[in-house]
Specification:
The structure holds two protein chains of two kinds.
Chain A (H helix, E strand, L loop, with lengths): L2 E12 L2 E12 L3 E5 L6 H8 L7 E6 L4 E2 L5 H7 L1 E4 L11 H8 L6 H5 L5 H13 L15 H15 L3 E5 L7 H14 L4 E5 L3 H7 L2 E6 L2 E6 L1 H6 L1 H6 L5
Parallel strand pairs in A: 3-8, 3-9, 6-7, 7-8
Antiparallel strand pairs in A: 1-2, 1-4, 4-5, 9-10
Helix pairs in contact in A: 3-5, 3-6, 5-6
Chain B lengths: L10 H4 L1 H20 L10 H26 L7 H30 L7 H13 L17 H25 L4 H20 L11 E2 L12 H28 L1 H11 L1 H6 L4 H27 L1 E2 L6 H14 L4 H19 L6 E2 L4 E2 L1 H19 L6 H6 L21 H5 L1
Antiparallel strand pairs in B: 1-2, 3-4
Helix pairs in contact in B: 2-8, 3-8, 3-11, 3-12, 3-13, 4-5, 4-6, 4-11, 6-11, 8-11, 12-13, 13-14
Classes of the chains: A alpha/beta, B mainly alpha.
Amino acid sequence: MTALLEVSGVSVTFDGFRAINNLSFSIGAQELRAIIGPNGAGKTTFMDIVTGKTRPDAGTVTFGERSVSLLSLSEAQIARAGVGRKFQRPTVFEDQTVAENLTMALKAHRAPWRVLFWREGAADRDRVQALAEEVGLADALSRKAGELSHGQKQWLEIGMLLAQEPRLLLVDEPAAGMTLAEREHTTRLLVEMAKTRAVVVVEHDMEFVRRLECKVTVLHEGAVLAEGSLDHVTKNQQVIEVYLGRG
Amino acid sequence: MTRQTFVERSFLAKNPSVLWFILILALFTLGVTVLSEAYGVAFLSTSFVKTLGKTLCLCLVALAMDLIWGYAGILSLGHMAFFALGGYGLGMWLMYARTEEIVVAALAQGGLPATPEEVRQGIAVQIFGVVGASEFPPIWAFAHSFWAQMALVVLVPGGLALVFGWLAFRSRVTGVYLSILTQAMTLALALYLFQNDSGLRGNNGLSGLQNLPGLGDVSQDALSVWFFWASAFALGAGYVLLAWVVSGKFGSVIRAIRDDEQRVRFLGYSVEGYKLFVFTLTAVIAAIAGALYYPQAGIINPAELAPIASIYLAVWVAIGGRGRLYGAVIGAAFVSLLSSWFTGGRAPSVPLGFYTVNWVDWWLVLLGLSFVAVTLFAPKGMGGLFDLWAGVRSPDRKGAALGPDDGALMEREAKE
């Protein structure tokens, strides 16, 4: 299986602090992967690098069959290439309706001129409707996103990511602040999504990771400490020392 | 229930304010025409018709300001500079062509027909004698051509906005830093134009713009109404255009940029491209408004570019209500008319016994206090009155942004 995303030898330093240290990581085209690690392990910095927010000092990041380097692209270009990102704090556009949020995220031309003349067609309406149903917000299409509950906002954001039709999805702590029922719904969504694309989930919560039943990568001090099934990595002595032992 | 959002609705049905606005503007234009000296019962003086026409131009530039500030969230303090550049652009042709008529008439009295070279020399002496020059500066190369100058009215401010915006947005300058940068641009331009060798007559500016070349027989009474009509048409067209721009997905994207531009980037939209587009579009609209304004004012000088003018523009839009187009129009019309009443010396002074409040001096204090009061207590501005009138109550969220708190009024409930 060829890798969709290939990160190799990446390092980044902030004011002398080495946030990522010679990190190498790869993920296949249809794979669900969980990344765990203690605070400061470099999980968020890793996502920042892949999505173009942070430029690494060394290393390469390539994406897709043609191995396009993501390091020379802007955030918007990376997003258009097929990398979607979900933030830890739900970030939806609170002053706009659920339908407007989803419509904005729909895969379509992104240039100002094209967007100016874009008008919603029947196919777009059906797509928005289908997405809203998929994330359980079909009744809330005309509501402002700011009125939704925390969990609903998370789903709206996941719906927006689905609308973008990304090939790689980076999800930062999706279960944070969710009720048990909401977590189960989220788990189902993530597992379903990973059938057609690569999904990387950064998560603190071990119970949640266990439910995902996927390969786990443990980060520590900006590098990969261990990789494998959850049971495999939790037996690793180093992992127990740096991460699990503290809990 | 689930399909309720997706009823097919036309642009006008989704934007009822457009039809209302056009209707009110048409009635207002008709009313002013009927009351004018040239075409009606002479109830309104010509100078007042000019004031109203100028006010319509200010409303148009306020619309542009609302798009860039109220919708896209970029507080530009440079849009009155684009407004003034538009005025200079048309003013150059007006002054050239008008002076040409005078020079040709003067030379014709000499008996022999004047050569084009003599005419050109004569115009140059007439226009630039005041700054001690007798040659045309290079920037007047197209001043003889109406169409070329009309193109420059759009191209010069548009080009400046494009270059300035590209440099600023590409470096991701945002917020208050961008405001300061635009203000610096305005100030630099004003200081440059104040110089006598700027080629635009320094602090004398361009004058006599109220006289249209070739229309010497038409009285100012009629001209003032013509310009009023043109201004009303431009304002109406500008309103429809901007209502259309903000109604679709483009409007959605720029409001999203205002609220969280990083998130918009991760959706794949090039934020810089959108900002540049809006900045340039609004600069061009401002320039067109300026080109219509200054022939009614009759004179333009570099003081018009002072940063304070752009700050007033922001105050009008804030008082009128940001993020709704009619709010900007109401704010600009109301505050600028009130301002000319207070500063025109016609407002009665208030004797307090120990001190007499003279409005020419105290108007700015009143304006400043109103601005502070609106910002603190009525962030929706005067446009918010329409919400009260229509019975739309805002969900009370205790000052927080939108939120799902228990018992909070939902937006939908508030509208019912």
